Amino acid sequence: MNRLILDTSYLIGFERSGVAAAESVLDEDDAVIPAVVAAELEVGVHLASDSERPRRRAWVDGVLDAFEVVPYDLSVARQHGRLIAHTTRTGRPRGRHDLIVAATAASTGRAVVTMDEGAFDDLPGVARLSRPMG
Fold first, then answer.
1. What is the pLDDT of residues 30-71, one digit of tens each?
2. CA distance 68 to 57
3. CA atoms within 13 A on the CB side of 40
4. pTM for the complete prediction?
5. 8 A C-beta contact, residue 18 and residue 124
6. Alpha helices of the chain — where are they, by DSSP H?
7. Is there a contact between 129 and 102 (Cβ–Cβ < 8 Å)?
8. What domains can you pick out in the chain, each with its CATH number?
């Protein structure tokens, strides 16, 4: 069983393909999303045009119903601080939300599944799993 944490880029790939996000994981996988990914998906709903918003809302609600949302708690905050310090020391900054995803993965012992090739490379204690779409 793979313990996975799904990044926004991976989920959006499924939205664009018209495939339900829950179909992206195998039955034996244990996949979750971090709270920051739920926030990023909500941004997409609120920025959608009036005509597109109902479809986006339904899709996001389906994702949130299909996967457990892991909160940003003290354990994640400690990992987040560690990763910010690491990227500052190495001179390779990352996106703020990417670091929260990475911190959530490290805190929960999960591998990040993402389409963003470089965002999670070389982060200590953060595993990344390549998973093809569909």
1. 999 999 999 999 999 999 999 999 999 999 999 999 999 999
2. 18
3. 19
4. 0.90
5. no
6. 8-17, 35-47, 53-66, 74-90, 96-108
7. no
8. 3-129 (3.40.50.1010)
